[in-house]
Specification:
Blueprint: H1 12-24, H2 28-41, H3 50-59, H4 63-76, H5 80-92, H6 96-109, H7 114-127, H8 130-143, H9 148-160, H10 164-177, H11 183-197
Helix pairs in contact: 1-2, 2-3, 3-4, 3-5, 4-5, 5-6, 6-7, 7-8, 7-9, 8-9, 9-10, 10-11
C-alpha cells in the first residue's frame, strides 16, 4: 500500500527509505510508484535514481531495458554500482561473459566491495573458471566474513576443483549462516558427503 508522506518537511529521504524497504520485500510496483513521486518532486534526481529504476526493471524481468538504461548511465556518469547492476541483468539473461565484463569494470572502480567479488565469483562458476571463482569468493569472505552466498560459491568452486573436504566446510558455513533460506547449501552438503564417502571404483583394463 502506497504511503503518503506530509509535504511540510523534506520528504525525499523518507521516500528513498520506502523504496529500499519495497525492493527488499520484492514489491517492485510499489518501489516504482515511490520513484515517480521522488522524480516529480526533484527532477535533478533522475540520474541519481537510475540504479533504483534498473533494480525495478531487473526485479520485474525487464532485463534488456535495465541493460539499456544502465549502459547509457555508465556513459554519462561511470559508477561501480551502475556497472554491478548491469552485470546482474546480464546474468539473468545468462550472458555470463558480458556479466563478467561488467563486474570486472565495477571492481576496477571499487575493489573492496564484497558483493562485486561474490558476483564475479558466481559468474566465473558459470564460465568454468573455477580457480578465479575461488579467489574472488575468498576475497569476498575476507571483506565480509559472514557472507553465506560467498561461502556457497566458494564451495561450488572447490568442489569443481576436486577439493571436497574444504568444499564441505564452505557449504556447512553457508548453511549455518543462513539456515532458513539457504537450503541449496544443505543439498550441496549431501552431494559432497556422497562423493567423499564413495570410494573411486578402479577397474582393470
Amino acid at each position: 500500500q502506497l504511503l503518503e508522506v506530509p509535504n511540510t518537511i523534506d520528504t525525499i529521504p523518507f521516500y528513498l527509505d520506502l523504496i529500499t524497504i519495497a525492493l527488499k520485500q520484492n514489491e517492485f510496483k510499489l518501489a516504482e510508484e515511490y520513484l515517480h513521486i521522488i522524480r516529480a518532486k526533484d527532477t535533478s534526481l533522475a540520474l541519481n535514481t537510475i540504479v533504483t529504476e534498473a533494480r525495478i526493471y531487473i526485479g520485474t524481468g525487464k532485463y534488456n531495458k535495465a541493460i539499456s538504461l544502465l549502459a547509457d548511465a555508465a556513459q554519462t556518469k561511470p559508477n561501480a554500482e551502475i556497472l554491478y547492476q548491469k552485470g546482474r541483468a546480464h546474468v539473468k539473461l545468462r550472458e555470463f561473459q558480458l556479466a563478467a565484463q561488467s563486474f570486472n569494470s565495477a571492481l576496477l572502480l571499487e575493489l573492496d566491495n564484497a558483493r562485486y567479488h561474490q558476483a564475479i565469483a558466481a559468474t566465473y562458476i558459470q564460465l568454468g573458471n573455477y580457480e578465479e571463482a575461488a579467489e574472488h569468493a575468498l576475497t569476498s569472505i575476507e571483506l565480509i566474513k559472514h557472507y553465506p552466498q560467498a561461502h556457497y560459491t566458494l564451495g561450488e568452486a572447490l568442489e569443481k576443483l576436486g577439493d571436497l573436504d574444504n568444499a564441505k566446510l564452505a557449504f556447512e558455513t553457508a548453511a549455518k549462516l543462513q539456515p532458513r533460506t539457504y537450503h541449496k547449501a544443505e543439498k550441496a552438503l549431501e552431494n559432497i558427503e556422497d562423493k567423499i564417502n564413495t570410494p573411486l571404483q578402479l577397474t582393470d583394463k
